């Protein structure tokens, strides 16, 4: 190796070190942004309990029967004293916030910054903005007394899997997980049963945690029945779990 080759290698190594230092500085500052999202979320949402988180597709319009069901169930839950939490965007999220705002309780939107599709809806009494999906997910889970999952795509499936995983692993208390529209969800439930359960990848009690309904009235019945003989507020043990999400 001649002197010129050595100097070229040394220069490339120094350039790489400078890029690493720059990237590390950027990542370090990013931690403060993440912290601020958590702090604001905790401060704003600690006052809205009890609440129900409602999930579903962003791509449905208000003439969809799924939209109308989500709006109605949110209105009923809001009138019953539950704050409504949605992702703050269009489609089912808009329907949930709309129904929540029409009712007596607070309508909360957890908005996420996305390159396309996500625009905040106008039915939010309390609107929070997030840059990171994982901080937003914590807010969906931490303050919910129940989850209502309407028809949706990858995002909805991601949120459903997240909730089931947290309950399965004991990171959160077991609360109602209610799927609306049996026809839509049945193929997935069949796969859970015939593949995951059959292959011993999940347990039957975990599968039975899912309740499937077709009407807003049935959603109300499931939630009220679950809390008939128990306090809707988390116990001290359950609150400790939620500190370690």
Head-to-tail CA distance between termini: 54 Å
Count of distinct strands: 7
What percent of residues are in strands?
5-15%
Count of all domains: 2
Query: Which structural category fits the helices and strands?
Result: alpha/beta
CATH topology of the largest domain: Rossmann fold
Enumerate the spans where pLDDT stays under 50 for 5 or more consecutive residues. none
Order of helices and strands: HEHEHEEHEHEHHEHH
- Shape by Cα distribution: globular
Could you explain the architecture of this structure?
- The chain has 245 residues and is α/β, with parallel strands linked by helices.
- The protein has two domains: 1-45; 49-242, 3-Layer(aba) Sandwich (Rossmann fold).
- The chain has nine helices and seven strands; from the N terminus they run αβαβαββαβαβααβαα.
- It has helices spanning 3-45, 65-79, 92-102, 133-142, 154-168, 182-197, 204-208, 216-226, 236-242; strands spanning 51-55, 83-86, 107-112, 126-130, 144-149, 177-180, 210-213.
- Strands 4-3-2-1-5-6-7 form a seven-stranded parallel β-sheet, sandwiched between helices.
- α5 (154-168) links the parallel β5 and β6 (177-180).
- α1 (3-45) packs parallel to α4 (133-142), α2 packs parallel to α3 (92-102) and α2 (65-79) runs parallel beside α8 (216-226).
- The chain is globular and about 80 Å long.
List the helices and strands and how they pair.
Layout: H1 3-45, E1 51-55, H2 65-79, E2 83-86, H3 92-102, E3 107-112, E4 126-130, H4 133-142, E5 144-149, H5 154-168, E6 177-180, H6 182-197, H7 204-208, E7 210-213, H8 216-226, H9 236-242
Parallel strand pairs: 1-2, 1-5, 2-3, 3-4, 5-6, 6-7
């Amino acid at each position: 190796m001649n002197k010129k080759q050595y100097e070229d290698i040394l220069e490339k190594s120094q350039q790489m070190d400078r890029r690493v230092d720059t990237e590390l500085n950027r990542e370090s500052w990013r931690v403060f942004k993440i912290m601020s999202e958590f702090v604001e979320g905790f401060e704003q949402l600690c006052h809205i309990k009890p609440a129900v988180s409602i999930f579903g597709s962003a791509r449905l319009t208000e003439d969809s029967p799924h939209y109308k069901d989500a709006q109605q169930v949110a209105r009923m839950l809001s009138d019953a004293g539950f704050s409504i939490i949605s992702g703050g965007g269009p489609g089912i999220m808009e329907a949930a916030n709309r129904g929540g705002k029409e009712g007596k309780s607070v309508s909360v939107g957890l908005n996420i910054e996305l390159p396309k599709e996500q625009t905040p809806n106008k039915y939010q009494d309390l609107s929070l903005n997030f840059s990171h999906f994982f901080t937003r997910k914590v807010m969906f889970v931490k303050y919910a007394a129940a989850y209502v999952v309407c028809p949706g795509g990858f995002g909805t499936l991601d949120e459903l899997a997240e909730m089931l995983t947290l309950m399965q692993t004991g990171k959160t208390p077991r609360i109602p997980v209610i799927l609306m529209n049996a026809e839509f969800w049945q193929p997935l439930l069949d796969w859970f049963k015939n593949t995951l359960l059959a292959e011993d990848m999940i347990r039957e009690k975990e599968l039975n945690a899912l309740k499937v309904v077709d009407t807003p009235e049935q959603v109300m019945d499931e939630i009220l029945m679950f809390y008939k003989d128990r306090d809707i507020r988390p116990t001290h043990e359950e609150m400790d779990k939620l500190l370690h999400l």
